[in-house]
Amino acid sequence: MRAIRILLVLAVVLGVLFVAADRIALWFAESQAADKAQQSQGFTSKPDVSIKGFPFLTQVAAKKLDDVHITAKGIEAGTGGQTLRIDRFSADLRGVRLSGNFSSAVADTADGTVLITYADLTKAVPSGITVGYAGNGKVKLSALGFTTTVEATLANGKTVRLGGLSGLPAELQALVGSGLSWDLSGLPTGIQLKSATATADGIQVVASGTHVVLAN
């Protein structure tokens, strides 16, 4: 009986040590993954990376992580001189495959959201225009004493537009020109934008993708 008790105690101790080692390895891996993602994707700040599932070490041995959550803030997007700050990009990545030397990570599938605040939209539009929420899923443009409502739409799976600008007062039309649109570059390769909705917090864009590159 005494031998059995000793074995049970040893089993408990070893179990605790394994869990501790697993959690330490997980913490280190999440930090390293965040650094790698920042360097690879060009994020302006270090993203938050959370690796789900237990035990972690067995996932590493298989070089495939079941579920990874990433949140990146302050992403600079846009091309051709039209830049737009993305306040937050969050995504759940499933089936993340690691390369032989752990230098790259590619997810089988991903689902996420992009948030663009009205304050950041105001900075991105021509000077003199203020962008806000009009309610009922509409965006409000105000300038020169005029106010109009427009819709947030998507084009080509990568471009956010403030559409419905026809019929504006001439003074306001002169400010917006041919339209207001931004290509949301700067997101991980493989991510496609699916829909855009105006909310009280800003324009929320739903995104998803396959073979999404987290780091390379």
From TrEMBL:
Highest taxon listed in the record's lineage = Bacteria
Q: What is this protein called?
A: DUF2993 domain-containing protein
Lineage, top ranks: Bacteria, Bacillati, Actinomycetota, Actinomycetes, Kitasatosporales
